[in-house]
Amino acid sequence: MQYRTNEKNHDELSILGFGCMRFPTSGGRIDIDKAERLVLQAVEGGINYFDTAYAYNGNERALGETLSRHPGLRERINLATKLPIPRCESCEDFDGYLGRSLERLGVDHVDYYLIHNVTSAHAWDRLKDIGIEGWIERIKQEGRIGQIGFSYHGPKDDFPILCDAYPWDFCQIQYNFLNERYQAGTAGLKAAGERGIPVIVMEPLLGGQLAEPLAADASDILARAGEPTDPVRLALRWIWDHPEVTVVLSGMNEPGQLLANIATADAAAPGCLSDAEVQAVEVAREIIAKEHRVGCTGCAYCLPCPKGVNIPQCFAAYNTSFAQGWKQGMQQYITASGVMVGEAHFASDCVGCGACTKKCPQHIDIPTELKKVKRRLQVPGLPSLATLGARLISR
Fold first, then answer.
1. For residues 378 and 229, what is the distance between their CA atoms, to the nearest angstrom?
2. Predicted TM-score (pTM) of this structure
3. What is the four-CA torsion angle of 67, 73, 78, 81, rounded to 10 degrees?
4. Which residues pair with 11 in a beta bridge?
5. DSSP secondary-structure letter at 61?
6. Structure letter (DSSP) for residue 8
7. Which of residues 287 and 92 earns the better pLDDT score?
8. Alpha-carbon torsion (40, 112, 52, 300), positive or negative
9. What is the mean pLDDT of residues 275-295?
10. Sequence-distant (≥ 6) Cβ neighbours of residue 276 within 8 angstroms
């Protein structure tokens, strides 16, 4: 594992961080035993930065359970979690949410604490008005947090304003080769670097979209140069090629993914990309941008839908229908509906309430996009036909 120095406090952080949001699940709940094995394997592989959040359902408790089972593990890692600011109306709320996070994690402090999902400079101004700056100073003095930062999902022009609004210890941005001009983007990455603010990168694979097999043209470029054609390796190396990046978070929920990413991290550094890799990224970027019509990352912040629609999976099926063909997208859409487990909910069930849109960090107009899903994938009579088919299969 390689490490980059956080110049704010001289921590040596693994360039690959473990994003816990996508811990493996079983029956709709986090499989703690599987999560534990992954965490231990990650630590043994040199990963020392683990990212969770109050808002990730069951996530802090699962990580806390692993820490409790292995005395001494806490001292080997840097632990990061996040404050759910939409729920905060006072300093008492700040204390309450941090306290519950610490209780769930079974620790007395976290090393890195983020103001979660800041969407504008105005959002920070609102927090200032209710006293967050004094609160940060106090909890730092009390030793309940180490470094303070923010995770950003807002317009590019607000990002440098926010960087200058407080003496941040670090920040977290969405960044990958499709998002150079989206949200903070490359301009934001460089703005943070110029200010000496360490950058943690989330969504390096755009919710798995960049893990799909590369288009033939991109693969051919790599193959002719003798380079591996692994799309995940290429996407991660592209990010680590930027010296302003400190840690790249990856939501690894299988041992194979973890080992592969550790191996990639072992051979990544600024300037690591070959000419062939640079060319392959350019080709892949152009093709993927055309194929993926909805920029959903699968984070599931939009859920639960009041009508039971599996919004991220509907969008994944819609994108698949363009990238891999209508038939493949339709099959995925039927699976996403939940019809095979007896509770079918299709895009047509959306009533446009907008509850999801308010929570989407990508600012997707979800009801409008679900109408597009319906038009493309929901043939007349599909709900009835799918339900009948599921009944026949289950006999």
1. 35
2. 0.81
3. 0
4. 6
5. H
6. T
7. 92
8. negative
9. 89
10. 221, 222, 224, 225, 227
Q: Give the Cα separation of 351 and 344 in Å (integer).
A: 16
Strands 11-14 and 3-6: antiparallel
Interatomic CA distance for residues 187 and 159, integer angstroms: 9
Indicate the SS3 state at residue 25.
strand
Average pLDDT, stretch 155-177? 94
- State the Cα–Cα distance between residues 63 and 81, nearest whole angstrom: 11
Q: State the Cα–Cα distance between residues 127 and 83, nearest whole angstrom.
A: 12
CA atoms within 13 A on the CB side of 98: 26
Element (H, E) at 358: helix 355-359
Confidence of residue 72 (pLDDT cuts 50, 70, 90): very high
What rounded mean pLDDT belongs to the chain? 91
Helix, strand or coil for residue 202?
A: strand
Distances 195 to 15, 188, 217, 240, 371 between C-alpha atoms, Å: 20, 11, 39, 19, 43
Instruction: For residue 84, give the amino acid letter.
Output: P
Please give the share of the chain, as a percent, with pLDDT higher than 90: 70
Q: Smallest Cα–Cα separation from 312: which of 347, 341, 285, 355?
A: 347
Look up residue 205 and give its two tokens: 């694979």
Residue keyed to tokens 């194929």? 291
pLDDT of residue 342: 59
Write down how long the chain is: 395
Q: Is 342 helix (H, G, I), strand (E, B) or coil?
A: coil
pLDDT in tens, 302-338: 999 999 999 988 998 898 888 767 887 887 888 788 7
